[in-house]
Specification:
- This protein is mainly alpha-helical.
- The protein has one domain.
- Helix content is 64%, strand content 0%.
- α2 runs parallel beside α4 and α7 runs parallel beside α10.
- The N and C termini lie far apart (44 Å).
Length: 170
């Protein structure tokens, strides 16, 4: 079933390396999004019980999504997370995870600025982008070479400029 969690101390393991080496073949099938959502959902229910120390599986899922580079999978997981409360997003987009979160959003949204705007507005309403996190997150649009290669030489550049002008967090 979920062999991922019986591999030892899960918080001392670098999941990206495990997934890159393909040691978790059962995590590469067609209904991976359902498995990951099930893991996240169970984790959220356990957290609400307040009976154990908090452990966050979102970071492990972000690692997996980055390695998988599967647009539909990333979209599906982000949609699930989108339905969660501020506490979940505070962790998903925390300073420690901001780069991973942004990279997963890039995989999912690519140059779809309507989707980018939808998520960023919602996260801003939740106050996830307080302090310097909002600026740090948005600065990746200028610094991430994968994003720049995707947008600059294409028809998406004008849409990107319009999108940036809409962002109030900058």
């Amino acid at each position: 079933m979920f062999k991922l969690f019986v591999m030892g101390d899960i918080f001392g393991i670098n999941f990206s390396q495990i997934f890159k080496r393909s040691e978790c073949l059962e995590w590469k099938d067609n209904d991976l999004d359902k498995k990951l959502i099930s893991v996240l959902d169970m984790d959220l229910h356990i957290r609400k019980l307040n009976v154990i120390d908090l452990k966050y599986n979102e970071e492990c899922v972000l690692d997996l999504l980055i390695v998988q580079k599967d647009r539909k999978l990333s979209q599906s997981i982000l949609e699930f997370l989108f339905l969660q409360d501020k506490n979940v997003w505070d962790h998903v987009c925390s300073i420690d995870n901001a780069d991973k979160c942004w990279e997963v959003m890039l995989i999912a949204f690519q140059a779809d600025f309507e989707q980018w705007n939808r998520y960023l507005e919602w996260l801003d309403k939740l106050d996830v982008f307080k302090d310097k996190l909002g600026y740090s997150f948005l600065s990746k649009f200028q610094a991430n070479s994968n994003f720049i290669q995707l947008v600059v030489p294409s028809k998406h550049f004008l849409a990107f400029l319009a999108f940036i002008q809409l962002q109030k967090m900058m």
